[in-house]
Write a structure and sequence with these properties.
The structure holds 2 protein chains of 2 kinds. By secondary structure, chain A is an alpha+beta fold. Chain A is built from 3 helices and 6 strands, in the order βαββαβββα. Chain A has one domain: Beta-Lactamase, CATH 3.30.450. Chain A has a 5-stranded antiparallel sheet, with helices on both faces. In chain A, β4 and β5 form a beta hairpin. Chain B has a single domain, classed as P-loop containing nucleotide triphosphate hydrolases (Rossmann fold, 3-Layer(aba) Sandwich), CATH 3.40.50.300. Chain B has 5 helices and 8 strands, in the order ββαβββαβαβαβα. In chain B, β7, α4 and β8 form a beta-alpha-beta unit. Classes of the chains: A alpha+beta, B alpha/beta. The interface between A and B is large, with 40 and 51 residues. β1 of chain A pairs parallel with β1 of chain B.
Chain lengths: ~160, ~200
Amino acid sequence: MGFMLTSDEHEQLTRDLDELLANAEARNVLLCDRGGNVIVSCGDSELENMDMVSALVAGSFAATKQLALVLGEQEFTAVFHQGAKISIFISGVGEEVLLLALFSDETNAGLVKMYALTACRKFISLFRDIMSREQIKIDDPTQSFKLTTGPIFQE
Amino acid sequence: MAVVNYAKKEIQFKIVYYGCGLCGKTTNLQKVHESVPAKAKGNLTSLATSQDRTLFFDFLPLQTMSIEGFITKFQMYTVPGQVKYNSTRRLVLRNCDGVVFCVDSQVDKTQENLESWENLKENLELQKDNLDEMPRVLQYNKQDLPNVAPKEYLDYVLNNKETRIPTFMASAFKGEGVIETLNAVAKLVLQDFIDKH
């Protein structure tokens, strides 16, 4: 299983994230898989460590899922971390994806939650299509992958 | 579970270092972080206890151009080795594309290695993955210590199937065999991806 995003899908997801960013007045919004890989991100370009944020968010969400199970819940579908200046809203998007919205203390948390959950419904449908299409073997020779030569990592 | 983005020309893979407690998983990532050029790596993040034991995971993002025309990202993780953190290991294994099984080569650690190996198999099966079909390498670590088991013995215990798993002798503490292990697993992950696409 994996995600293969075409240019059109990337554009669509970016457009939807940009809309969420503007409506919710967030600083950053991103979609990552539950393994911690960034799928698409939008917002403040100063946030360089997107890979790390994504890995930690996926870990944090997975931990709260275990907590939910211990308490007899299937999942906490959304998680909110409140900071003095920056807060984070995380929501599950179907079984495989997470939506993260990072926002400042000048933004209303309820607003973020409302727009994020609306966006989630749209993303669930989009990712259902993306993931079902992934089952199809891509046999277009123009889309084949080729390894470069030489060692992958050097000291 | 690779993430391919045709618009950004980017592919992401997840590699997990697995093994019993104190076998050297975190040390491997630390040495990789020290060795790899700055342009190819991000920050090393460790979620550890106050005694420097891994509590959740270590994380190191790496970047190469291993597939023509695509930025190839490898997200490197370690699991906590202590037996009690099994649910955490399952979380970290989610969507992984390749595994480095780090072996503590000391003779008296054989049982712990075996238990961790079985635990890896079980945890992969729970997420419907099969270790025999996953890109994987064995690293016989701690070769700098005096009481290490011979390679033949370690192979007999852990690598005794018809299809042999690539093995690497290493001393992560001294930085020996670390990059070789990384290159081997990365190559297997890339080949596996190409074979499937």
